Each structure stands twice: as C-alpha cells, then as structure tokens.
C-alpha cells in the first residue's frame, strides 16, 4: 500500500498500463502462435489445414447450446469490461472539498480550489520560489495535497524546505484544522525568471 | 508516453466493448432466427473465407506478423509509461518530494557552462545516471574532465537526493584531435 503522500504525486495509470500490457502480450502470443503453426513447427500436416478447422467446427456443432451460451456470456463480459475500462480512463481526477464542520445546519465546507489557491499563494511568498501550484487530491476522507514549486536558479533546496514545511504547510494544517496533511511536493529546479514579452 | 497509454486504453476499452456487444448480438440473433441471416456482421462470408485459407497462406502469415507487431508495440508503450521522477529525501514524515530529471539536467548544465573554458554542454539525466557532454576549444579532455566531474559531483551533493546518480563526463575538444 502506497503512503498517501506518495499516491498524491501524480494520477495513477496503473490499471491503464496493466490492461494495455496484457492485451499487447495476448496479441503478441496469438500472432507468434499463428506464425509457429504456419511454419510447421507444430506438425507439417497442421500447417496445411484450414484456419477454421473442420474438427473444431464439428466439436462446436456437437455442443451447440453450450457454445452459444458461452459466446453470449463472453460477449457481455467483454462489453462490461470494455465500458468499465473506458469510463475509468475518462474519469477526471478527484479534487475533494474539505468539510471543516459536518454538523447539520451549520456545516462548513472549503472547496478544493479555494484551499489550493490559498496554499499556492502562500508558497509563492517563500524566498526562492518563483511559481507555485497546489491541488487537493485523494479521497474525501483522507485528502492530500500536491504542491508543485518552481525554484529560482541557485536557490538552496534545504532552505526552501525549512520554510515550506515550517510556515506554509503548518499554516495550512492549522487553518484547516487537520493534524496531518499528506503532501507530495514536485520541485522544478533552476527555472529562470519568466520574462514576459509585452 | 503516459498520455498515449491513456488514449490507447480508452480505444482498447471501446474496441473490446464493441466486439463483445457484436458477438453477443450476432450469436443471440442467429439462435433466435436461424433462417434470417446475419444481423450486422457478414460472418458467414468470413467463415467461408477462413475455411478456405490454410495456416501457410501469405495472408494468414502477414496478419499474424501484424498482430504480433501491434502487440509488441502495445507492450512496449505500456512498459515505458513509468514515471521517471528523481527521488529526494523526505523533509518530514508525510511529505514526499520528487523532482524531474529535466531539472537535474538543467542545474547541472548551468553549473558546467559557468565553468571557465567550456564553450557548450549538453546534459542528460535520469535518477541513476547523469551524462555530461561538454565542448571546449581551449582545454583538452585530460585537463577539463576531472574539474567538470568535481563540479557535477558537488552540484549533486548539494541536493538531498536519496541515491547519488553516477556521473559521466565527456569532453569534446579540438586539442584532442591533433
């Protein structure tokens, strides 16, 4: 199990990668098997038999009901799995709002973008930080923070750390009233001052 | 590559769903009305075509090569879509810090170019290895290399990296070609 701060680093593509790799592996094996059969390495007689083998067709014909039910079940299964995969890929990343007070009638919710904006502005005040961007990610029960900071050239990383952790993150925790706020920081080092052309 | 995997998995998901729906639909249709012929896919024609082909035919072999090649491409794309972040030490528990290989290369490159007698440098960096290729018109590789190696080493030591990347420096100098 990844720790929440590691999980907050970036959106996970594990499911997409695993499925793509599995389908790729299956296609590779299928193609390779067809080539091996065609070469005659699994018997020279098999290589000259039709692709749609009459023996296989006979077997399917003998078990017609089973084959039909099996094909329909397989088709429905593929349909559901394919739609789930597509939906998962298209789903946007969650940015949970933070509920400070859950009592009915006087509930108080801070939206994810408000938290993110406040923390980013705060982080940009730190010496050596040229730009900062914050995002709230993760479960609503266990929100985490993703903070990207762009540092000026020649900034000492350790000084930035001390200030980020000592003031920015502490302030964020205090104002949100949470004991821990898992945080993933992405640092871009040595970025020059952006020069705007007007 | 990561965006590419996402697009690919979306397309694969939609293709799987479409194939599954057609399979279930055709089998169900033929089961219910055996005499009406196929619904959407002309599968009897495909069946007759496949029955006429043997495993040795060129068409079958070309298709097999194409399928195997496409599978290999999918596999490689999925395997190379890792995150290539460089790990930095956690300042406190609950805080994880990463930087990009590009940042590492950028600061190493700035330091190397700031050295005397270096006319240009290109740097490629990963979490494991930093490669520097510097060019110099005035100093030979033997003179410049130890100095640059030291510069790169101290630059990397200033960063709280969890693992020190190996450093390789190559100097391109016309003085070595005499």
TrEMBL record, chain A:
Q: Looking at the record's lineage, which domain of life comes first? A: Bacteria
> What UniProt keywords apply to this chain's record, in alphabetical order?
Membrane, Transmembrane, Transmembrane helix
User: What transmembrane ranges does the database entry give?
Assistant: 67-87
Keyword Transmembrane helix in annotation: yes
Q: What is this protein called?
A: Alkaline shock response membrane anchor protein AmaP
Task: Give the species this sequence originates from.
Answer: Actinokineospora spheciospongiae
TrEMBL record, chain B:
Span-the-membrane segments of this chain are: 62-81
Q: Locate the DUF6286 domain: which residues?
A: 70-171
Q: Name one Pfam family in it.
A: DUF6286
Transmembrane helix recorded as keyword = yes
Keywords tagged on the record: Membrane, Transmembrane, Transmembrane helix
Query: Can you say what this protein is called?
Result: Putative membrane protein
- What organism does this protein naturally occur in? Actinokineospora spheciospongiae
